[in-house]
Amino acid sequence: MDFPWLQPEFSPAGVVLGLALLAYLVLVEPVLGLRCYAYLRRHRRDRSDALLRVYALTLTVEGSWLVLILIILLVSPDLDPGALGLSRPAGPLLGPAVAFTTVAVLAQIATGVVLRARGVSVPVAGDFAYLLPVTQAERRLAGSVAIGAGVSEEVLVRGLLIALGVGVLGLSPLLAAAAATALFGLVHLYQGPLGVLLTTVLGAIFAGLYLATHSLLFPILLHIAIDVRALLLTPPRIDDGSDRQEVPAARADAGGLG
To answer: Is the dihedral of CA 40, 157, 214, 194 positive or negative?
Structure first.
């Protein structure tokens, strides 16, 4: 399978910054995720701002990724943004991709809304219950986290990392996508083995949508829908009518957070 649109040309400075981001994802992000989740396990019940602090850190880190990717584009004048997936969708598989994404997004949102209204959860692999918002302040910031993760993770993992694999490491697009997908699972190590497996499968779907449409638009939309379903449409474990509620058990009965 040929991908003539995926011909990234990084400048030396762009290569250095790109490899630095890759090293961060491999060496730092999995450890940071484990440490943040351990912090929530210890302090979710005794510190009212524990989750808000983790949300704020998440938004800061992921915002930094986007800033660095913008700098890479600025210092690499020959790097076409389309080689990072920053382009309009195209290609012969665009129609099926539109249909798949539309159905998947609507299914995520509709299922979440219906089950939340009924107070029912769907058990799925992945340990991330301490990330679920309880108070109104937490829920408001959780929406930003869901959108921020959907945009930043797709631009970094599917956009930049696949481009680095092809343009710098000399990998084929499919092999670069496979490596990026494996790394996407690794950075969700805090969710446990089943959570890593689930996010790896989701990463493969996102990568498939990207390569099929030459664009990150559909992976971003689906990624946001999944995170909104996981963070905002999961029925609360306890609803006592108060602003603060008991934190749920460690094993979440909700969709995977990507």
So the answer is: negative
- 205, part of any domain: yes
**How high is the mean pLDDT of the chain?**
89
**Whether 176 contacts 161, CB under 8 Å:** yes
Q: How many domains does the chain have?
A: 1
Other C-beta atoms lying within 10 Å of the C-beta of residue 175: 14
Residue 54 lies in a domain: yes
Rounded Cα–Cα distance for residues 255 and 257 (Å): 7
pLDDT tens for residues 133-178? Answer: 989 999 999 999 999 999 999 999 999 999 999 999 999 999 999 9
Model pTM score: 0.90
C-alpha closest to that of 256 among 110, 102, 131: 131
Phi-psi region of 76 (alpha: psi -120 to 50; beta: other; left: phi over 0): beta
What is the per-residue pLDDT for 113?
87
- Which tokens hold the place of 28? 């730092």
Q: Which residues of 11-37 are buried (b: 16+ CB within 10 A; e: fewer)?
A: eeebbebbeebbebbeeebbebbeebb
pLDDT reported for residue 2: 80
Structural domain that includes position 112: 12-232
